[in-house]
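PROTEIN DESIGN WORKSHEET
SECTION A - STRUCTURE
LENGTH: 249
TOKENS:
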């Protein structure tokens, strides 16, 4: 009998599964809770409920070659009743909180803990422009006064995973989260298997004839230059040790 300690074997397997068709993962074709996660950089994580890693996925924007999503979007885990839900607040254009919209800190978009493919969420929230003292956990007592507000009525569809390519050509599976705001296609966000948010595309078309007046007057519509994409699959990280006993007889 020989005792072999296979450090991080489970993590390597999980990382490899990200490059396999999602159909091999049975429940993951329906249950998306391994896609809608948030990996926070362990060196500056503030949220005690967060999943921490020293190697979060890195994305590329128009002007930044590599940045983690936690520096672009304000995402946290929050306790809701008996469960913990993913809470999405706003985005920072190219990592800078200047001339961007934000929503009230007390009313984020909550992603259910048991999230399913094909599920449609409805969300109504007041957005402020530019960045307002009402918006951030750390900016309640300081910051500019909002010049405009928008009551956004969103229909959010969470799709079954499809295969995507990172910038370096590596493949991964991702669920598309499509947002229609006040009846107008707005933006799509892609959540990778065990990666979380890794890409975005702008759906808004300002030339449409059916844009409602409140959207036409809103100065902070999505822009193509705000899109981001996963640069490469991150390396596996150590979560635990696995001990295997092999009988050589």
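SECTION B - SEQUENCE
RESIDUE ASSIGNMENT:
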């Amino acid at each position: 009998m020989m005792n072999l300690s296979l450090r991080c074997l489970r993590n390597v397997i999980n990382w490899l599964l990200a490059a396999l068709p999602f159909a091999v993962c049975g429940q993951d074709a329906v249950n998306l809770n391994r896609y809608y996660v948030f990996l926070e950089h362990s060196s500056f994580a503030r949220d005690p409920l967060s999943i921490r890693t020293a190697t979060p996925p890195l994305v590329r924007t128009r002007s930044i070659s590599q940045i983690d999503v936690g520096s672009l979007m304000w995402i946290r885990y929050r306790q809701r009743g008996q469960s913990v839900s993913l809470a999405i607040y706003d985005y920072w254009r190219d990592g800078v909180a200047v001339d961007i919209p934000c929503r009230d800190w007390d009313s984020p978009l909550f992603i259910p803990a048991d999230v399913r493919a094909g599920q449609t969420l409805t969300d109504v929230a007041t957005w402020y422009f530019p960045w307002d003292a009402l918006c951030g956990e750390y900016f309640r007592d300081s910051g500019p006064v909002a010049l405009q507000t928008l009551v956004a009525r969103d229909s959010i569809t969470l799709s079954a995973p499809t295969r995507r390519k990172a910038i370096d050509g590596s493949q991964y599976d991702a669920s598309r989260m499509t947002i229609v705001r006040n009846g107008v296609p707005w933006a799509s966000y892609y959540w990778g298997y065990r990666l979380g948010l890794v890409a975005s595309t702008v759906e808004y078309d300002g030339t449409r004839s059916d844009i409602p007046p409140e959207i036409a007057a809103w100065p902070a519509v999505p822009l193509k230059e705000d899109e981001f994409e996963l640069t490469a699959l991150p390396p596996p990280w150590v979560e635990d040790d696995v001990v295997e006993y092999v009988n050589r007889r």
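SECTION C - NOTES
The longest strand covers residues 119-129.
The CA atoms of residues 131 and 189 lie 22 Å apart.
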